[in-house]
Amino acid sequence: xxxxxxxxxxxxxxxxxxxxxxxxxxxxxxxxxxxxxxxxxxxxxxxxxxxxxxxxxxxxxxxxxxxxxxxxxxxxxxxxxxxxxxxxxxxxxxxxxxxxxxxxxxxxxxxxxxxxxxxxxxxxxxxxxxxxxxxxxxxxxxxxxxxxxxxxxxxxxxxxxxxxxxxxxxxxxxxxxxxxxxxxxxxxxxxxxxxxxxxxxxxxxxxxxxxxxxxxxxxxxxxxxxxxxxxxxxxxxxxxxxxxxxxxxxxxxxxxxxxxxxxxxxxxxxxxxxxxxxxxxxxxxxxxxxxxxxxxxxxxxxxxxxxxxxxxxxxxxxxxxxxxxxxxxxxxxxxxxxxxxxxxxxxxxxxxxxxxxxxxxxxxxxxxxxxxxxxxxxxxxxxxxxxxxxxxxxxxxxxxxxxxxxxxxxxxxxxxxxxxxxxxxxxxxxxxxxxxxxxxxxxxxxxxxxxxxxxxxxxxxxxxxxxxxxxxxxxxxxxxxxxxxxxxxxxxxxxxxxxxxxxxxxxxxxxxxxxxxxxxxxxxxxxxxxxxxxxxxxxxxxxxxxxxxxxxxxxxxxxxxxxxxxxxxxxxxxxxxxxxx
Amino acid sequence: xxxxxxxxxxxxxxxxxxxxxxxxxxxxxxxxxxxxxxxxxxxxxxxxxxxxxxxxxxxxxxxxxxxxxxxxxxxxxxxxxxxxxxxxxxxxxxxxxxxxxxxxxxxxxxxxxxxxxxxxxxxxxxxxxxxxxxxxxxxxxxxxxxxxxxxxxxxxxxxxxxxxxxxxxxxxxxxxxxxxxxxxxxxxxxxxxxxxxxxxxxxxxxxxxxxxxxxxxxxxxxxxxxxxxxxxxxxxxxxxxxxxxxxxxxxxxxxxxxxxxxxxxxxxxxxxxxxxxxxxxxxxxxxxxxxxxxxxxxxxxxxxxxxxxxxxxxxxxxxxxxxxxxxxxxxxxxxxxxxxxxxxxxxxxxxxxxxxxxxxxxxxxxxxxxxxxxxxxxxxxxxxxxxxxxxxxxxxxxxxxxxxxxxxx
Lengths: 581, 409
Hints:
The complex is a heterodimer of chains A (581) and B (409). Among the domains of chain A are: 1-25 and 147-221, Immunoglobulin-like (Sandwich), CATH 2.60.40; 41-139, no CATH class; 305-418, no CATH class; 501-580, no CATH class. Helix content of chain A is 36%, strand content 11%. Chain A contains 23 helices and twelve strands. In chain A, strand 7 and strand 8 (213-221) form a beta hairpin. In chain A, helix 3 runs antiparallel to helix 6. The longest helix of chain A is centred in the last third of the chain and has 16 residues, at 420-435. The relative contact order of chain A is 0.08. Chain B contains 14 helices and 14 strands. Chain B has helices spanning 4-17, 20-29, 58-61, 80-84, 102-111, 124-132, 178-194, 202-219, 221-226, 234-240, 244-258, 276-281, 287-304, 369-379; strands at residues 34-40, 89-96, 141-144, 262-267, 311-316, 320-321, 333-334, 338-344, 350-352, 354-355, 362-363, 367-368, 387-389, 395-397. In chain B, the strands form four sheets. In chain B, strands 1, 2, 3, 4, 5, 8, 9 and 12 form an eight-stranded mixed sheet that branches. The radius of gyration of chain B is 22 Å and the shape is globular. At the A-B interface, strand 11, helix 19, helix 22 and helix 23 of A face helix 7 and helix 8 of B.
């Protein structure tokens, strides 16, 4: 969405995440700076000298860190053995490598600075802070240890660089002037200057704000697992990539009877019949599908959603949440774009690039309607007044189009359903119903500062939905992914199917299916447990009970349970019955 | 219990007179066991309740006059009984925040955290349930008569810490005998033990706890009776008021007596964008007369039963309201100034902070929302810096910010 025109219009913000360079942490030359660096006068071998050698590459596997060393000089690989390395440098060769009397003539300085021939070439500048540190250490007698502490941990910090690009082609580094926040401080924190500190496994967004623009930067640390997963469709392809990147092993496929049950509950809201198989097309053709999804999504789902929404908005029959054009607009945007406009009523949206003017321009599309018996109907005239200018606001779409005469709502509806946000919001909502949680969560709170779990997946799904905005084929796409059919459990980034209490009405229906008695629906909680205590079911034999309630045959041990009303009740109270898994 | 004069003395003498340690020692003795939160949903106007500005211009001061009260403290004329008991209450007039949306502000005041897309923070009631256990027979966390519009449940804590919202007392009666129910309960365990279909996630574990709670509740005649306000003498019910807030406060007292640790009494109708004077004054009863009756009776009743010193009573809403009346004679959201009243539970009575001449901003002693929540936890004996396993098992402090409001603890 374009922002208001200004002389210095920012076209886009480009962000790159780079690892902080050595210059930031190197050993300062002058004494005052050294004090500030919190290293005492005499460098310690393990704490100060070895890290320099490691960074320069002296003890790398291809150099002196190889098993045989290099040129008769051997160091432990990447400095794991400080004692041996100290001996090799300070004591072997009668200490020609270090010259305590004339530090500058030590071999360990002459070789890497290229003053005497060195197989590894020149790797240090003579006037570098690293050389100064090594010289100080030699001058002090090349001690093994000068401080008592040991290194216990390091915290890796990544730095965000923010570049503002202007309409005249100019670019400016605004890193120091941008505002940073983290969406999950258990995964990563960010300092006021944009230094990112990754603290835990997982992924989150650092939200960067500058000049009215918002950009999320995904950061995180991999899980270090290895797994096999062969994608079956576009859903799987995106998840497979993310799991590979984050080193996550997805769960194995769920057992057939588990998948049959899961699909029936998610797609039809009912328990499967005994003998049902995994047949996505048969399931989607069932008459319950339309009723269940129309109730869940609040729109009739047997037609294209863009047509449905167009008709709803212009058809004089829309439900009116209020008679205020602003609230009607807010309600429509939130339900169709999954975006909360409220903030922009009083000021430019702090989290998005929506301006207050745009808010009122969009609301003006609802200026010529009135509410009749709870329904929105067209009115011949009416204008919306801007609260600041107190003038009538022209109905203008965010792309700049001004509505012509006639019913303004038609132009609004056309924009609403063609905008990519429409497809994105619906793709996310339907995903949330099928997988148990939106890729953006909550599903009606889409904004740059609340980015999707897997952005590329949501974009790919939005693309699919934009091509064919019907619910049934889209649900089919999700159900035929391997990701949907994974075994359940707790795991990161959709790598396991979610375990969720059955929705209140689905549970009530399932209990009715088993017992013939329907409890009052309540969400999972004490009220729900109390409600079940008011059910006294008829007895069933064990085989019939397990098939009916749990969609499977009882095990040998389960067959031995005493049949009767008490067992039926116990299965209704069991975990396996009460969860989507 | 200290008087307001003592509080002033502490302030005047400062560190020389009474050290912080003395203050803390005081709070050790008088630690609250439970808490009643009276939640004025929608954001009550500070300028029409506890922070009137009789000297401000008409468009700021509105139509209410102050009731007679202690010097410089102007409580609305429609809260006469509360004004008369200010000596027992701690009035915080300078609670300030920047969250001006109902959902965000409700989250902030009830958790002490700004809302985050990644972490669902637990509200105070859920933390109390987690700290004090789920209760013996009555649940430890209850909300009446229904949750606030922006329900927080248990946040990232076990769903078992979410508030119980009771229905009618008859909903607590099972259809089979208690013996039979006990047998059924044992059978559930046998069925669960033989099934490995569901991994033990937090939701799954919570279900066990709900059932455990349900068994205990239906098995205890005493606990069931606590939910039935009809068992109170008519005189008491009349004193609290025959309206939702009155019944809610009475139910809260019965539950606290029976062992509930945190009761939220939600009262709707405080989002007064229009005709604020009329909206707060008129009705059956009006918002303010109803609040005055229910709250003052609750405090007096707790006191006469010896429960006030161990029961912290918090009266607040999500924010104050705009200093200037709008064109519709109402006030809009104004989070920068909010008045909160604490009572009982070891609270030192007194007035902390004030706002400027128009009730716009805190004057001198701003109180952050984190400080308020920190103080409530401290009064309840909960360490606000204690770490919980947050989402994914990561350690998260109950509160990362804030400090105790030392004038009241």
